[in-house]
Amino acid sequence: MGPMKTPVSQGPNPANGHETRDSGAPRIRLLIADDQLMDRKGMVSLLATQPDFEICGEAESGEEAVRMCAELRPQVLVLGVRMPGLDGIASIVAARQACPETRVLAVSDRGEQRCLVLNPPRFHRAQESEPAHEAPETGPACLATDCLELAVVQGAVGAIRRTASPEDLFRAVRAVASGNVWYDLGTASRMLQRSLGMGPGSEAQPLSERELEVASLIADGKSNKDISLMLKISEPTVKKHVGRLLEKLGLDDRLQIGLYIARNPLVLNRTPGPKR
Fold first, then answer.
1. Within 10 Å of residue 160's Cβ, how many Cβ atoms?
2. How far apart are CA 183 and CA 156, in angstroms?
3. Within 13 Å of residue 129, how many CA atoms lie on the same side as its CB?
């Protein structure tokens, strides 16, 4: 973690064509947190063009963002979700605890088309090799939860992609600062589908509490023997749970179970079915 950034205050730049806002009118205080220097400075420069925004500080790590939230009390924390140390997802929870009045606008690691969760390489290879009339895979294995959905679950009230336009960034900041939510279209659509029980994999049978435990341990790389010892059940019982997981999720082997949980961590947050 680098040295703490000195808080800065940047008002409107007369060179950008905006009129100076009435000094008596309140401005939205923003803290910008991103470990990518050029991206962070780019967001600071863009946001500083708006007469109703005030940049009160910059942070290059999750830990620094949390500390500065507690010290500076910004109205909005614009937070990159991929940072070393305390990453953006964990930082959301910590920042909300440190400063409950600060509202978090999460910024994705990359654009949707370059997100490896939403667009894994295997999907692209399949599209290139399949005849045009065949649809891509739509089973449970292709359903994925990306960083912005995780950020919202952890308490972010805004979610935006790095490929968004500056105007959308300004709208998002103003929306969350005024007490509303603002999600990019793709994230909003996927969240709505999940809430309505729609979308790929929605027909999958609910997993029992024990099956969720076994799936989580498989995702952690544990063998059947490890799982048997950790859960204090026999290896044949573990194998039965693995078999039920494969059947319910429509998968072929335990490796796919691990990959499925890695791509769909919210599965572990579901209300479990009956314990078996």
1. 24
2. 10
3. 7
Tokens of 178: 């005024």
Predicted TM-score (pTM) of the model is: 0.63
Would you say 210 and 242 are in contact if contact means Cβ atoms under 8 Å apart? no
For 69, 73, 80, 218, 245, the CA distances from 261, given in Å and listed in that order, are: 32, 36, 23, 9, 11
Separation between Cα atoms, residue 63 and residue 33, nearest integer Å:
10
CB 231 within 8 A of CB 220: no
In sequence order, what E strands does 175-269 have? 182-183
**Are the beta carbons of 153 and 266 closer than 8 angstroms?**
yes
Q: CB pairs under 8 A, 24+ apart, for 199-203?
A: 199/143, 200/138, 200/139, 200/140, 200/142, 200/143, 201/139, 201/140, 201/141, 201/142, 201/143, 201/249, 201/250, 201/264
At 65 the pLDDT is 94
Q: How many C-beta atoms lie closer than 10 Å to residue 96's C-beta?
A: 20
Q: What is the pLDDT of residues 2-28, one digit of tens each?
A: 444 444 444 444 334 344 445 556 899
Instruction: Please state at what angle helix 88-98 crosses helix 62-72, rounded to 10 degrees.
Output: 20
Q: What secondary structure does DSSP assign to 45-112, as a single string?
A: HHHTTSTTEEEEEEESSHHHHHHHHHHH--SEEEEES--SSS-HHHHHHHHHHH-TTPEEEEE-SS-G
